[in-house]
């Protein structure tokens, strides 16, 4: 049996959570037709079953790929996160199994910034509660507690791609922008970085969160932090559901300590559109609830589909790991007439020497070789000069797989 990579139509691709059609089009244009696309996410047991013979999987923010799933996925080469966040993937477990993870770091950022901008205006004008009252036959025509955004202080927590875009948009409305970030950042426009979260909370009329899910951001806004906000300020969270303690927020909204909130992300979210959404925030009129749609625009989803599918295709076609989030980045130009081998191994001294010894013993000429390592893993792409149909590459692969410390090795073409 040949050990050379499968024909493209035998490479199985599983796309979950309604990944945009643009991804399927890109994959098909490059010859990958064995694609299963589902609208929903899968739970852990379902995933362990579904990933068994899958080579590439595409997910969004809902699907949890943990160590057990990677263990079950013995053919998996790469994961495409068709979103920004990669907190739903156990990146270390993926790396341990030689699985490369890609994401789309920018494509939906404008969509989130626009939604938050709209929510700032809605919340400052108390539209959620006036809207809810009107639907029940109420008529709350009053200026009390309704404010213009102009001149108000917007406090941004996390001044990255989304936070900094929002900063520019909000200044165009006349807002004064302050931000808190653990890194020193380039302040755009007239924005000012403050030194502590508490300082930001105390100064802001609107607080909005744009941090990733990390151990440090988990529950970073709880009862104590909410109490430090200005009376009647508003809170927006379109980052991750684990960043805000939702029970404390519900209390602050019910008691009037906060005048409103807009929440797009939740500690537990439904698996798909047919599941019921449960939350202590349901039924609170001064809270805008959106079903994790910060990045869900036609433009963003189409671009993400093209971007991430393109990264999967490049890895599958030529071994490029450029922009991978958990893997050494390697891209080697193709050398005409060469065969290409990939070797993923634990980062131990002497691995490359062992690989090259095998090549030297077989008298194989290397036309290109590129190794990159991180603290855990080494990834080397090797182009060798062998005749197209020879079985030398297969023989080499058997020897390379036998090297102690090898995670994965294959002949790409
Ligand atoms: N609701 C939605 O549909 C979407 C949600 N997101 C979420 O938004 C997050 C942010 O996205 P980007 O701006 O593109 O990420 P980014 O990585 O460009 O920016 C994140 C910023 O947060 C800062 N940060 C990290 N830990 C911090 C901490 N403990 N305290 C203060 N600042 C901290 C970082 O230094 C960085 O500047 C994503 O990680 C994702 O979870 C992203 C897209 C869509
Ligand atoms: O890009 C992100 O991190 C998001 O949260 C968007 O997630 P989604 O693709 O809408 O499930």
SS-based class: alpha/beta
Q: How many beta-strand segments?
A: 16
| Helix count from the secondary structure assignment | 13
Amount of helix? 25-40%
Task: Work out the strand percent.
Answer: 15-25%
The largest sheet is: 7 strands, parallel
Q: List the secondary-structure elements in sequence, H or E.
A: EHEHEHEHEHHEHEEHEHEHEEHEHEEHE
Query: Mean pLDDT, nearest integer?
Result: 96
Keywords:
413 residues; alpha/beta; Rossmann fold; Alpha-Beta Plaits; 3 domains; 7-stranded parallel beta sheet; 5-stranded parallel beta sheet; 13 helices; 16 strands; 31% helix; binds 1,4-dihydronicotinamide adenine dinucleotide; binds 2-oxo-3-(phosphonooxy)propanoic acid
Structure description:
This protein is 31% helix and 18% strand. The two termini are 15 Å apart. It is of the alpha/beta class and 413 residues long. The protein has a seven-stranded parallel beta sheet, sandwiched between helices. The radius of gyration is 25 Å and the shape is elongated. It has three domains: 6-103 and 298-327, Rossmann fold (3-Layer(aba) Sandwich), CATH 3.40.50; 108-289, 3-Layer(aba) Sandwich (Rossmann fold); 328-412, Alpha-Beta Plaits. The model has no long low-confidence stretch (mean pLDDT 96). It is built from 13 helices and 16 strands. 1,4-dihydronicotinamide adenine dinucleotide binds next to α5 and α7.
The gist of it:
With 413 residues, the protein is of the alpha/beta class. Helices cover 31% and strands 18% of the residues.
Helix-strand blueprint:
Layout: E1 13-15, H1 21-29, E2 35-37, H2 44-50, E3 56-59, H3 67-72, E4 78-81, H4 91-96, E5 100-102, H5 109-124, H6 127-135, E6 153-157, H7 161-172, E7 176-180, E8 192-193, H8 197-203, E9 206-209, H9 223-227, E10 234-237, H10 246-255, E11 260-263, E12 287-289, H11 298-318, E13 339-346, H12 351-361, E14 365-373, E15 377-385, H13 392-401, E16 406-411
Parallel strand pairs: 1-2, 1-3, 3-4, 4-5, 6-7, 6-9, 7-8, 9-10, 10-11, 11-12
Antiparallel strand pairs: 13-15, 13-16, 14-15
The structure holds 1,4-dihydronicotinamide adenine dinucleotide and 2-oxo-3-(phosphonooxy)propanoic acid.
2-oxo-3-(phosphonooxy)propanoic acid binds next to loops.
